[in-house]
Amino acid sequence: MKIRLASDIQPDSILDGEGIRTVIWFQGCSHNCEECHNPETHDFNGGFEIDTEDIKKQIDELEYQNGITLSGGDPFFQPEGALEIAKYAHKKGYNVWAYTGFLYEDLLKNKKTKKLLENIDVLIDGKFVKALKSFECKFRGSTNQRVIDVQKSLEQGEVVLYYED
Length: 165
Ligand code: SF4
Description:
six-stranded mixed beta sheet; globular; alpha/beta; 22% strand; 24% helix; 8 strands; binds iron/sulfur cluster
């Protein structure tokens, strides 16, 4: 399946989730958060197209990584391609984190984004809000965003936080 990415996959990140992670930067986002740190990822026609099979091959070649992070842009605008990658990453033994400007509750309302959620371990949700910007929060840019334990939240039918800092 073809997906649109903003840049090559990026191994060895320690900023985009727990441990050493490989980040996949999806192209396309219409949340328009004020002072977004990645404005070049907004254009849905920007970046470049790549086949998910190529991404899987790149995942096969990774070494010394604890997990995969889907970021962007917003991976939930390409839920089918992101799902394929998330499933493959799990098959290879990686945990999967994802960043989104949507709220967890809204992602549950759509069949495709719900399916993607079901294959995510930790979700950082919500728009970046400049007035709530904080350098104290782990793995998130503003205090409104939540670091959600997705599997526990799905089990319990309500949001369960992964971190409560
Ligand atoms: S969701 Fe992320 S990429 Fe999209 S506008 Fe907000 S901060 Fe930028």
